[in-house]
């Protein structure tokens, strides 16, 4: 499979890896087809993303996507960040192989889930946006309570449910 130099750079040297302490929003979703999991934490100041970190248990494309999404949204307003879609990310990465396009959904939707979590926690559920795709989804910190290991079973939703994205 051919990856662009940008994808390889973000895969080999991922930016903003880890987890913020006391984040303002947490988004964690799992891809329904491959089971890969992405978790984003954001710090919000004056409705801008001041800082963002990710942890991805998944393929190389998903890691590159996560890294690129964090770079694209840092410093952006929540409105601007939520408008970034999977095509924007794939384009910023210099393209993704056809079979790996679904991996870019995971990045933008993990970010949207984190922003949605922020809106819910701050009493603005009306600002919550739909995700681009269907995922195994855990958006809130409470829902993400687990042992923190990298074992997939630990990170699956307890009810095994699938969120209702737009399927766009
Ligand atoms: S193969 Fe699962 S996110 Fe890439």
TrEMBL record:
SUPFAM superfamilies in the record: SufE/NifU
PANTHER family for the chain: IRON-SULFUR CLUSTER ASSEMBLY ENZYME NIFU HOMOLOG
Organism, scientific name: Desulfoglaeba alkanexedens ALDC
A Gene Ontology molecular function term of the record: iron ion binding
Protein name: Iron-sulfur cluster assembly scaffold protein
NIF system FeS cluster assembly NifU N-terminal domain ranges (all copies): 3-122
Region called Disordered, residue ranges: 147-168
InterPro entries: NIF_FeS_clus_asmbl_NifU_N
């Amino acid at each position: 499979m051919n990856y662009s130099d940008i994808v390889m750079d973000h895969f080999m040297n991922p930016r903003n890896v880890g987890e913020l302490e006391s984040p303002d929003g947490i988004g964690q979703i799992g891809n329904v087809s491959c089971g890969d999991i992405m978790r984003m934490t954001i710090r919000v100041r004056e409705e801008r993303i001041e800082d963002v970190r990710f942890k991805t248990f998944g393929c190389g494309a998903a890691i590159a996507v996560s890294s690129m999404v964090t770079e694209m949204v840092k410093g952006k307003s929540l409105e601007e960040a939520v408008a970034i879609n999977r095509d924007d990310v794939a384009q910023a990465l210099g393209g993704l192989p056809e079979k790996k396009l679904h991996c870019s959904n995971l990045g933008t939707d993990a970010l949207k889930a984190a922003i949605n979590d922020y809106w819910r926690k701050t009493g603005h559920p009306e600002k919550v946006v739909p995700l681009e795709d269907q995922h195994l989804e855990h958006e809130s910190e409470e829902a993400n309570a687990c042992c923190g290991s990298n074992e997939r079973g630990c990170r699956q939703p307890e009810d095994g449910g699938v969120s209702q994205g737009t399927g766009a």
